[in-house]
Amino acid sequence: MILRPVFFPAGGQAPASLLIRSAHVMTMSPALGTIEDGGVLVSPGDDSRIVALGPYEDLCRRHQGAVMDLGDETIAPGLINAHSHLELSHLRGKPVFGKGFCAWAESLHEYMQTRADEASIRAALLDMCVTGTVATADMCGYEAGKIVDLLQEGTGPDILFLVQRMGFASPKGGRLKPYGFAQDLETRFSQQGRFAYAGHGLYSTHPETLQLTKAWCDEHAMPFAIHLAESAEEVELVQSGRGPLGDMLRDSRLLPRTFTSSGHTPVASAHALGLLGPRTIAVHCVHVTVEDVAILAATGTRVCLCPRSNEQIGVGVAPVEAMLGAGVRLCLGTDGLSSNDDLDLGAEIAWLRRAYPELAFRDIMAMATINGAEALGIARDYGSLEPGKKAAFVRMSAVEEV
Description:
Elements: E1 6-8, E2 18-26, E3 34-42, E4 50-55, H1 56-60, E5 66-69, E6 74-77, E7 79-84, H2 101-111, H3 118-130, E8 133-140, H4 144-151, E9 158-165, H5 180-189, E10 195-199, H6 207-219, E11 224-228, H7 232-240, H8 244-251, H9 266-272, E12 280-284, H10 290-299, E13 302-305, H11 307-313, H12 320-326, E14 330-332, H13 345-355, H14 361-368, H15 370-376, E15 393-396
């Protein structure tokens, strides 16, 4: 049983060279595996890095400084939240839950007229930190500047800002119109690999806009994220153009009357548009067919599961075992507080362990660590415990298998 992860060391900082001992060092590195009675040697400084890993006794012979003994605990890499919506943090507990996607979306649309406040975003960032998240991909919009300001206070994980493209206005001249609010983000974070554009969804964004956004991400070697196959209502709308989601979106004028269905599932439709591939993160994928799973696997598309969000809204459960069996690379996200109780990725891990007791704990941890880091393009720093990577860990106790 995994208990609540605790981020360690805070801020990735160590005042001096530090040797950490733990009963189990779960490196998530295929080459290193899990080191029993292991040690991790951490460099000093504000950007603490892992110097060496191995059996504790071996590292003791090379180390003269401080030692932190974690006893019977397990340490693992800091967690990677591959999908969040931080600027919706002020909507915690407000939308309609448990009555399906349309009821949730309709209630959310009403609350979306309110603006995010710094206190709720600050609390959400702290929630991520104290529960072990070291990096997140945040689907953001006009309020992203507030998140940047709060990060300057020193609280929060590393953030990959994914600015969502929405709307059915046709791109003029085959070019994307710049978002004014995103220009500062792009200037400040693109060179750090922390900025990209994203597509919201097939039912909310013009197909050509999605294609141009994917092309931008490919050109800049950045991940392309899109909500895909989250609900049965989405599947019906994309396949046939009918159903309650289409009626709701047309009534609110978010979906044009000229919208035409593809006649295919969302996954097959995204594939036909050229939106899938190794850099694509398809978020949710709850309602996918056997053929869809085969497409996701063949294209190398990564799928981000958000199981507690899906349960909260009432859209169903993704076919995790089928996707793993087909070789789909899975990562893990919390979604936002508009559809989840908290941003604790450890709670997502615990949910998967309860729902799929036959899955190896290591496979679930891979979703929350190395798979997420690779999907976001940050595996150079995060995702596994290896020399040269950032000294960012979670501590776990009462884990019967590592």
